[in-house]
Design brief:
The complex is a heterodimer of chains A (290) and B (448).
Chain A: H1 3-14, H2 31-38, E1 54-63, H3 71-90, E2 95-104, E3 108-110, E4 116-117, H4 134-144, E5 161-166, H5 174-182, H6 185-189, E6 191-197, H7 203-210, E7 216-219, H8 222-240, H9 256-278
Parallel strand pairs in A: 1-2, 1-5, 5-6, 6-7
Antiparallel strand pairs in A: 2-3, 2-4
Helix pairs in contact in A: 3-8, 4-5, 8-9
Chain B: E1 9-11, E2 17-26, E3 30-37, E4 40-47, H1 55-68, E5 80-81, E6 91-94, E7 102-103, H2 104-109, E8 111-115, E9 122-126, H3 132-151, E10 154-155, E11 164-166, E12 173-175, E13 182-183, H4 199-202, H5 210-226, H6 234-237, H7 244-253, H8 274-282, H9 285-295, H10 297-300, H11 308-320, E14 322-324, E15 330-332, E16 337-338, E17 344-345, E18 352-353, E19 355-358, E20 364-366, E21 372-374, H12 375-378, E22 388-394, E23 402-406, E24 412-415, E25 421-424, E26 429-431, E27 437-439, E28 444-447
Antiparallel strand pairs in B: 1-2, 2-3, 3-4, 4-6, 5-6, 7-11, 8-9, 10-13, 11-12, 14-15, 16-17, 17-18, 19-20, 19-28, 21-22, 22-23, 23-26, 24-25, 24-27, 27-28
Helix pairs in contact in B: 3-5, 3-11
Classes of the chains: A alpha/beta (290), B alpha+beta (448).
């Protein structure tokens, strides 16, 4: 480099400027501040993790007792496999949807040891045998629906969605299980829906779980089973992953209980509407032709 | 709602019919289809009129918007209305979103899901800005786009993360969901999305308007830069379960900015809001001050919210303060050391950079090989942040000699090392030296 060029370059690099000239709003970090900050600090402005999202856990409570054996279980497995990608598409991208599946027969069992993010969830096909320990399932659900257990997402959570599917009457004391649930505030604020399968299932009993008759749907045939599972799961996850608009422009305060109730009511209305508009596509009853 | 079938024809208001090809997606107000009309492909938004409080007025508003035309080419604006069916259903055609744009939500999540058609299996694909320059350009584009809309006397009303698409390579943006846009003061029922709505909208004491748009815009900008929510901190995450009443409280009645200088009850929480904690250390004070003002004073006083023009100036400054060090480190000037001579020094490799002081700026522009100047820098009364008018380059014949090339169509007057002023025409350049003086035509510059 010739002297002339070097001079120009040096001039460019070393051209004097006084720190005291710095204008208001100019960077204010002192050299020491920045140096200590840069020790052990990732300063890449592009390197970010995902924005913390609200989470929603959808609980499926599935009857795997002996009476479910055969085409009912087969169909349920297939529908659930199909359902997962559908929920994936619906789930608001700013809500982290997780799935937990609890099965009950002689024993109560979780499909996975914790709720799994919808993107990673894979349906493990279920098989049926034994009696209907629904009460025990309610108690287990109540234990797991806790900040210290399944609902341990560090950021904000929506109230969970609980979807119960059964084809029979509980063989144990379900009232005791419901009592436990009623003490759980996640249950209180959560969205509940149930599907009765075949003529043995008792809609009144299911309404005790959901808290309202219109969030209980009854499938009498195979085609209906598939349809209704999808309708209920999709509608409840849509409503569960969104907030309703509230305002303080009302004459009376809305309590969280009121809001939970109005969401549950909305779920009931939408389920009933969709079920009606879809009509009955299959007329062969579940309990015949086995 | 009446859904449309594949292959069905929908009659258009002014003749002809659009043929439905497939569903693209569904939203709160209806379904979007891919449709063919006059041998071209469009997106058809088809409304669930039951979900619209006054469909007649809503349709009339879209008709007016079509007549007025888009405020700029950044909007996927309604183009043609369909006829109204007997049951009141209707829709409109708009252009399809071009390739190469990612949704704002995916950018915030840093990934998108690619779903395999056959198996339904989902794989994550990274979505990230390709450069700091592209990110800040996207921010400027967003601000400018809403400035154009507000200048046209309209408000967007439902500004949220679902309404934008961004090209992560160059920062270009597209605004979709333009159907709730209405003259300022009019509202056809939309309130907005929780987390983005202005506190007075959350509380139901105001309908969306230009002032509430400004709040939502600030939320969008904060989320894009700081990758977190401006009012979700310790106070909010203590309410573990997000019920509507807690939302009304934390986003409406008692919204507290996470870095409110007078109230530390809602600071970001380590482990949840790590992004915000990190980026708050990186951005320069003038950016943080603007957000702090908007989310403190601006929460209760809508008229004091930062206007788009101010945001635009701040972000143009931020973009001009990106330093691309030759060691590979790219960062804002605020993350470079300041030497006693007043140069920016790279803390990684020690390289120093001086600044160009323009007469129309109260801050200097750091100089490095490849840095560009825009019409808004070098031309009087211009706010054009896209047209490049100059670039700092190394002389091809004299390695080591740095200078600025005139890429504008103007003739610049420059004081050369011999002490005389020379004309520098378009396509020519001049060396940067100690006492260089540049007259861009009304705007002058010197080395700082």
């Amino acid at each position: 480099m010739s002297d002339e060029k070097k001079e120009i370059r040096d001039d460019l690099l070393k051209n004097s400027k006084k720190v005291a000239d710095a204008k208001p709003g100019q960077q204010t970090k002192s050299t020491n501040d920045l140096e200590s900050l840069l020790d052990d600090f990732d300063d890449d402005p592009l390197n970010a993790t995902g924005v913390s999202r609200k989470s929603l856990v959808i609980f499926f409570l599935i009857d795997t007792s002996g009476s479910m054996k055969g085409t009912k279980m087969g169909e349920l497995n297939t529908v659930m496999e199909e359902l997962i990608p559908e929920i994936r598409k619906i789930g608001e991208a700013d809500t982290e949807v997780k799935i937990a599946v609890l099965t009950f027969s002689d024993q109560v069992m979780w499909m996975y040891s914790e709720p799994i993010a919808i993107e990673e969830f894979e349906w493990a096909r279920l098989s049926a045998a034994g009696v209907t320990s629904m009460g025990a399932a309610f108690e287990e659900l109540s234990v797991r629906m806790s900040r210290n257990s399944f609902l341990n997402s560090p950021s904000l959570s929506f109230a969970p969605v609980m979807f119960l599917m059964t084809d029979g009457y509980p063989s144990d004391d379900y009232q005791k299980g419901l009592e436990a649930l009623n003490k759980n505030s996640w249950y209180k604020f959560g969205l509940k829906a149930a599907l009765g399968i075949g003529k043995e299932a008792n809609d009144e009993m299911l309404a005790e779980f959901t808290g309202s008759a219109d969030t209980v749907v009854h499938a009498y045939s195979g085609g209906q089973l598939a349809q209704f599972i999808k309708i209920i799961a999709v509608t409840s996850s849509q409503i569960g992953s969104k907030s309703m608009t509230l305002s303080d422009d009302t004459t009376h305060e809305l309590s969280p209980e009121d809001v939970a109730k109005s969401k549950q009511k909305l779920l009931g209305q939408q389920i009933q509407e969709t079920v009606k508009s879809e009509g009955y596509k299959d007329t062969v009853p579940f309990d015949t032709g086995w | 709602m009446v859904e449309l079938g594949i292959g069905q024809y929908v009659e258009m208001e002014y003749g002809g019919a659009a043929r439905i090809i497939q569903i693209i997606g569904s939203g709160g107000q209806g379904i979007v289809y891919l449709a063919e009309f006059n041998d071209a492909r469009y997106a058809l938004k088809w409304y669930d009129v039951d979900k619209i409080s006054n469909p007649k007025a809503f349709r009339k508003n879209i008709e007016n918007n079509i007549k007025d035309g888009a405020p700029s080419n950044k909007f996927l604006w309604p183009k043609y209305l369909t006829k109204e069916l007997d049951n009141g259903c209707f829709g409109y055609l708009m252009d399809l979103r071009p390739q190469g744009y990612d949704s704002f939500v995916d950018i915030l999540n840093t990934y998108k899901l690619e779903i395999e058609q056959m198996s339904g299996r989902a794989t994550k694909q990274s979505v990230q800005f390709k450069s700091l320059f592209a990110m800040v350009t996207a921010v400027i584009n967003i601000v400018n786009t809403f400035r154009q809309l507000h200048r046209a006397g309209k408000s967007y009303q439902d500004l949220n993360d679902g309404g934008f698409f961004i090209n992560v390579e160059n920062g270009d943006i597209l605004v979709c969901d333009c159907d709730n846009i209405a003259p300022d003061g009019c509202n056809f029922g939309i309130a907005g999305k929780p987390g983005y709505m202005a506190p007075e909208v959350v509380r139901g004491i105001s309908k969306p308007n230009v002032q509430t748009d400004k709040y939502s815009l600030a939320v969008v900008l904060f989320k894009l830069l700081f990758r977190g929510d401006p009012v979700e901190g310790e106070k909010v995450v203590k309410d573990i379960c997000l019920t509507e009443t807690s939302e009304l409280k934390h986003y409406g009645q008692q919204a507290i900015f996470v870095y409110d200088p007078k109230n530390d009850s809602n600071r970001p929480v380590r482990g949840i809001h790590d992004n915000v904690i990190k980026f708050w250390k990186i951005y320069p004070d003038y950016i943080k001050d603007a957000f702090t003002f908007t989310f403190t004073t601006g929460i209760t006083e809508p008229n004091k919210r930062i206007i788009e023009n101010e945001w635009q100036k701040l972000f143009i400054r931020l973009r001009s303060e990106i330093i691309k060090c030759h060691c590979g480190r790219t960062n804002f000037a605020s993350m470079f050391l300041l030497t006693e001579e007043g140069h920016y020094k790279c803390p990684k490799c020690g390289a120093e950079y001086s600044e160009l002081q323009l007469s129309n700026r109260d801050y200097g522009i750091p100089l490095y090989i490849g840095c560009k100047f825009y019409a808004c820098d070098t031309e009087k009364a211009s706010d054009d942040f896209q047209t490049v008018t100059g670039e700092l380059i190394e002389n091809k014949l004299k390695p080591g000699v740095l200078g600025i090339k005139n890429m504008s169509d103007k003739i610049w007057k420059v004081k050369m090392p011999d002490g005389n002023f020379y004309n520098v025409a378009s396509g020519k350049g001049f060396p940067l030296w100690k006492d260089v003086e540049i007259d861009f035509g009304g705007i002058t510059a010197k080395l700082k």
